[in-house]
């Protein structure tokens, strides 16, 4: 396999991120190594993930296993992020070999496929750090001078390809965020995994400027009261971790105006490879401006009748059963039966779950 093929494969990745596995496999061929991995670290969220894995030792499950079980205990992660070497570095320079071989990640993930010697190629930017690691077996031993020289000549091109890939993904993400917020409508925020605002609508900006219930610390969205902030943080964390959570919070406003409701939902960006959802949607619903979903949409999505659709919209406005009974001119018992049917069709168990229904009509997940 010729070095020129490696260069071509590298630049294909810049415009098609699905080709990274092909490039890594090609790289193992031209350097005589057994396996190669691409790990990316997001500086803002301090989150790392294995994005691609290639080579003769490639295991189709290794990417998911690493991201689920080993990324947090990767022995190279902390020393590499502390030093941030600007050029090729041997794994032995970062981690003591004997200590590394006693660790869980080596014994459970690396040793079973016979890998031992690691060589790392970094690509460092302000907000993202990428690392290509080449692994050799005990029999192959450390990488020879010819292969190291080849990698040294390839490194600038690899760094450029990774930077181009990151820029294209950022542009795609910004377009997706703008489209998503447009579909959701109303007052809403998109947060990352540390609850920093990555996008918001103009009405959300106006709410922040008023300081009436929500504010920011740095770029992190926060509730004005400590008690509500704890609930918002807990609900957002549970949302990201796929844990059961209320998802709907009632927010009292310091001005004395009517309360608003915060609907918290997980969001996954297109093509996201991380195990956890990429973002959090926080939609602010003002009780004085109730959400109204079209009966045709409710019938198509949940099979609701026209009467059930009217009751559902009143529930979305946080109206009580007595209020709904008065508005529709029917008994409370009839409303209770209709609510029971709505809950069954929408697979919800309480009103606080039902009010998240508007988020299901946006292409977010």
CATH fold-level topology of the largest domain: Beta-Lactamase
Largest sheet data: 5 strands, antiparallel
**Spatial strand order of the main sheet:** 2-1-5-4-3
- Radius of gyration using CA atoms only: 26 Å
Task: Tell me the structural class.
Answer: alpha+beta
* Unreliable runs: none
Mean pLDDT value:
80
What helical percentage do the residues reach? Answer: 40-55%
End-to-end separation in angstroms reads: 41 Å
Count of individual helical segments: 15
- The proportion of residues in beta strands is 15-25%
Question: What is the CATH level 1 assignment of the largest domain?
Answer: Alpha Beta
The succession of helices and strands, N to C, reads HHEEHHEHHHEEHEEHEEHEEEHHHHH
How many structural domains in the coordinates? 3
Shape: elongated
Please give the number of β-strands.
Answer: 12
């Amino acid at each position: 396999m010729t070095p020129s093929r490696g260069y071509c494969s590298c630049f294909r990745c810049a415009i098609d991120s699905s080709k990274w596995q092909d490039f890594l496999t090609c790289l193992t061929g031209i350097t005589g190594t057994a396996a190669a991995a691409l790990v990316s670290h997001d500086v803002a969220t301090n989150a790392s993930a294995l994005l691609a894995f290639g080579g003769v030792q490639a295991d189709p499950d290794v990417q998911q296993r690493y991201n689920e079980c080993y990324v947090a205990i990767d022995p190279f992660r902390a020393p590499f992020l502390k030093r941030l070497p600007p050029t090729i570095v041997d794994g032995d320079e970062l981690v003591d070999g004997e200590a590394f071989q006693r660790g869980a990640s080596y014994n459970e993930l690396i040793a079973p496929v016979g890998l031992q010697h690691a060589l790392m190629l970094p690509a460092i930017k302000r907000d993202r750090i990428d690392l290509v690691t080449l692994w050799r077996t005990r029999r192959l031993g450390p990488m020879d001078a010819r292969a190291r020289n080849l990698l040294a000549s390839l490194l600038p091109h690899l760094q450029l390809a990774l930077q181009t890939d990151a820029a294209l993904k950022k542009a795609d993400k910004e377009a997706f965020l703008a489209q998503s917020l447009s579909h959701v409508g109303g007052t809403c925020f998109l947060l990352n995994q540390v609850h920093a605002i990555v996008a918001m609508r103009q009405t959300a900006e106006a709410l922040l400027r008023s300081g009436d219930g929500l504010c920011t610390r740095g770029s992190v969205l926060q509730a004005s009261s400590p008690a509500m902030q704890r609930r918002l943080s807990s609900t957002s964390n549970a949302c990201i971790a796929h844990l059961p959570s209320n998802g709907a919070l009632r927010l009292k406003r310091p001005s004395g105006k009517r309360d608003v409701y915060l609907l918290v939902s997980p969001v996954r960006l297109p093509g996201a490879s991380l195990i956890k959802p990429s973002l959090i949607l926080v939609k602010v619903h003002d009780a004085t401006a109730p959400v109204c979903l079209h009966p045709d949409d409710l019938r198509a999505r949940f099979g609701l009748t026209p009467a059930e659709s009217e009751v559902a919209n009143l529930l979305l406005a946080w109206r009580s059963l007595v209020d709904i009974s008065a508005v529709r001119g029917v008994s409370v018992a009839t409303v209770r039966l209709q609510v029971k049917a709505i809950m069954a069709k929408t697979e919800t168990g309480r009103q606080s779950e039902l009010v998240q229904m508007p988020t299901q009509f946006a292409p977010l997940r």
